[in-house]
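ok, trying the design again with the full structure, not the truncated one.
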């Protein structure tokens, strides 16, 4: 599919109160500089970024519609990049237990 490279799927692990990255598209891997597939949110980025993304994902789990967000990815050795995303809840089973995000970079 045309937009798979911009997708991220994160599964909520209720017992750990964390999100597991199930899929990270190649455009996101290139822009983040790492493949986070199979990693917990708590294992990635700064505490500030983790808190922001955790709340974004928790809001999407509520299933109340699309969530829009923008921000910056900061690196010590690279130019900062601005991102924009839309995120929504995703069902694997009978309940919304994951999120689906579409992310673009300027």
């Amino acid at each position: 599919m045309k937009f798979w490279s911009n997708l991220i799927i994160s599964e909520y692990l209720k017992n750990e109160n964390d999100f597991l990255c199930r899929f990270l598209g190649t455009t996101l891997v290139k822009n983040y500089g790492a493949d986070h597939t199979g990693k917990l949110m708590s294992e990635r980025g700064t505490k500030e970024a983790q808190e922001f993304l955790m709340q974004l994902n928790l809001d999407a789990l509520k299933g109340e519609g699309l969530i829009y967000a923008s921000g910056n990815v900061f690196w010590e050795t690279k130019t900062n990049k601005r991102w924009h995303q839309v995120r929504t809840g995703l069902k694997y089973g009978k309940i919304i237990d994951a999120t689906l995000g579409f992310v673009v970079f300027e």
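Keeping the full-length input from now on. The beta strands are 7-13, 18-24, 67-73, 81-91, 96-105.
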